[in-house]
Amino acid sequence: MFSVLRNRNFALLWSGELISTLGDWLMVLALPFYIFDLTNSVLATGGTFIAMSVPRLLLGSLGGVFADRWDRRLVMITTNLLRAAILLLLLLVHSPSLLWLIYTVTLLESAISQFFMPAKNALIPQIVSSQELVAANSLDSFSEAVTRLLGPTIGGALYAFLGIISIVAIDSSSYLIAALCLLLITFRPQVRAQAAAPSGEETQVTPKALWLNLWHELVDGLRVVRKEPVLRAIFTGMGVMMVGEGILDVLLVAFTREILHGNASTLGWIMAAQGVGALLASVVSQQVIHRLQPRYLIMLSFGIMGLFLIIIINTPIFAIDLVLMAIIGALLVWGMVTAQTLMQKTTSDSYRGRVFGSYNTVLSLMVLIGMGISSVCAGLFSTAVLLDISGAIFALSALPFIKIPAMSLASIPSPTELPALAESPIPVKPS
To answer: In the chain, which residues have pLDDT < 50?
Structure first.
């Protein structure tokens, strides 16, 4: 897995992302605590999560459109610089009367991130070879697991001793470092064809025409998903799983208190066990993923995850639950890395940004649906019953992946490069 770091361009991308993601995890823990300290309100604290979620739903697909139109490296550099600057506005907040500014910063940062993620997922296959793709995605998963484990702990300590100013400074600086790493990447991007206006004619770009053009491109990307069996299976299976994830997220605290009879520390151990499993799985992802056909690996991973969740819910023995959660963390990594690699390998470069943008939007929507189901049904069913339903949904999410053809990742041919924006009458360039 680590051999892919010999690729200078990927090493720069990965290093910058590792640093900026660690900064993000510091903020994930510190900001809600800061809001609660300011307001002493759980409702006010929950507002940050709403501010983070809304842009994912509204802008994820649109970000993918621009990731296919613009230089992806430039998009990532620009978004990192914007996020670094916007975070500094948090330094102005010293009283509850400025709580709106925290929500505004959170909303803007999340909105900008929707342009970053599709560009990143589409850029990786451009800077690594097809043979390195599993290793690159596995290393990306490894860094996510490491920062998820270390970030909240470090963030809590820094906030306790140095306050929110230290967290803002570190997170903002991490984006600047990530932008610098991206600036040092050198590669020859593929040329994306754009239809030009007839000779001698000028194309008048009106706001209506611009938005219609963007809409057509977005729909064009969705057609690619509809026509490609692998993409359809991944969108469907992952979407179903995210409904179960949304139900589970809402009930985590209730599960800890009512079923495990524990407290926040108990939940911390459960989450840490999953993180350790994910971390260890990332190290051996390349070997595991290359040994099994993608559809069988994903189906086994998600099916076993659902079964283990049901066992955890109905066998509240803490030591057993920790072991099973670690295994779930490992299975989740293998399933997600395999799915991401399949998407990258079966999507032409011209459409990769739109496919990943739509993917992020679909997952965000399905998580919100799961959260809504959990919230509405909490008064009708017990926590255990709802969690059993969540586990069953996880297991059922394995079924759509049977539509993936029987093949190994290595045998997947490079996708046919489709003419990007071929029907676009209006060239759109970043200002």
So the answer is: 191, 193-203, 418-431
Calculated CA dihedral for residues 390, 392, 396, 397, nearest 10 degrees: 20
Contact predicate 102/31, CB 8 Å: yes
Q: Which letter, b or e, does each residue of 344-372 get, where b requires 16 or more Cβ atoms within 10 Å of its Cβ?
A: bbbbbbbbbbbbbbbbbbbbbbbbbebbe
pLDDT, tens only, 129-145: 888 888 888 888 888 88
What pTM was estimated for this model as a whole? 0.75
